[in-house]
Structure formats: C-alpha cells, structure tokens
Amino acid sequence: MSPQPVPQVRVVTLKIDGRDVGATEDETILEVARQNGIFIPTLCYLDGLPSIGACRICLCEIKGANKLLPACVTRVQEGMEVTTDSERLTRYRKTIVEMLFAERNHVCAVCVSNGHCELQSMAQKLGITHVHMPYRYPKLTVDATHARFVQDDNRCVLCTRCVRVCDEVEGAHTWDIMGRGIDARVITDLNQAWGDSSSCTGCGKCVHVCPTGALTEKGRSTAEMVKKQQFLQYLMQMREAKQ
Question: Could you read off the pLDDT of 216-240 as tens digits, one per residue?
C-alpha cells in the first residue's frame, strides 16, 4: 500500500495592528500574535489546553466583520486585517472583567491567591480601580471535603480550565458544568462533594491551572497560593516526543 500524502498547510499573510505577519492557515489569531510579540489579554486560554473562547477577553476587531471575534478560536485568513488594541476593545474588556467581579464574591484582601491571581492581574492591566455595576453577592459554597484541596465557588470565573485539563490531560473527567449563564457552576461527579468523588485521581492539575483562588491547596494562607502551570508544557513535550 502506498503511503498517504501529507496534507499541505497553506501559508497566509495578514495584518495585525498594522504589521504584516505570516502564518499558516491552521493557526489562530492569538497564536500568531504571540509569535510576533503582540499582546492580547486572555483568561480562559492556556497553552496545552483546547481553546473554547469562554471569557471573551481576547476579542479583536476584524476588518469587514460585523462583530468582535475571540482571537483564541478564530483562524487566520489571507489578507485578514486584525486590530487587537483600541478604545472599543478596552471598553469591552473592562466591562467583561467588571462583570466577573460582580457576579461572584471576589474579596482579594483575604484570598489565598492574592497577588498571584490572573483575574486580579487582568484588572490591574486594564486600569480597573472599581466596579461600576451592582454586585450580586450570591450565596455560594466552599467544598473542603477533599483531603488535599479546596473548591470555593465564590472565586470561580467559569473559565473551565479545570474541566478541560481533567478531561483532556488527566483523562478522569471529574469536573463538569451545571446550570446556565451566571448561575452555572463547576461540579464534581454529577454534583457530589469533591471528597466523595470516585473519579478524582488527586493529581492537582485542576488546582494549578485555575486562574483564581477557586481551587487551592489546603493549608495556604492569604497570598500564599502560587499556581504552577509549567507541567502542561512538559506534558506536551513528552507527548510530541512519543509521537
């Protein structure tokens, strides 16, 4: 049997913030921007995990498009003209981050991830000093039934990093999403307590990809929880080496 031909990936040229850049058509705007040193803010995106465009903070303007598109899941095209930084985009991004703060109960001063939180860092980068909309103050739970970890729904931003790393990397699929909209929340094993989960392997991957203080290690005090996400790049390298 003759070997199957390798499909050719077409090279395209596009503009990002007025700069001519080259890319392959299977790449996203975010990937190409980062390769060329162009900053696009993200929250749900993480190298090594499948992109889903959940947080919408990476929204960009595309010439000819009638709406803003998320850079993490939008493939590049020949002749595309992308704007990643404008007053309109800054306004949208600020509104999104403020809504994330207002939807849950984020009290940075007493959070174990204070100073190491991606939501907090994003707010600082965008120049957010206060929230312009009323807080919801929902009554959310803290699950400390696991022997090593804690889940605090009050600080969750529904990025689904934990769901994706548990499913795609660890292969356990302990985590999932229950509910819709602002009432959605992350659950374990069809809404059981984390400590009662029969599928959780206790690997801690979900904890270390979490961008906020929603998933943390027990015994951490205020500002002590530092996330270690380097394992994803290591696992990707090992998988590529085996392939």
Answer: 999 999 999 999 988 888 887 777 7
- Residue 40, C-beta contacts closer than 8 angstroms, at least 6 positions apart: 29, 30, 33, 34, 58, 60, 71, 84
3-class SS of residue 168 = helix
* Measured distance CA(76)–CA(65) in Å, rounded: 13
Domain boundaries, the chain: 11-85, 90-242
pLDDT, tens digit (0-9, with 9 covering 90-100), for 96-123? 999 999 999 999 999 999 999 999 999 9
Quick check: 34 and 76 in contact, CB under 8 A?
A: no
CB 72 within 8 A of CB 161: no
Q: If one looks up domain 11-85 in CATH, what number appears? A: 3.10.20.740
Question: Taking the CB of residue 162, how many other CB atoms lie within 10 A of it?
Answer: 24
What CATH architecture is 90-242? 2-Layer Sandwich (3.30)
Written as one letter, the residue type at 66 is: N
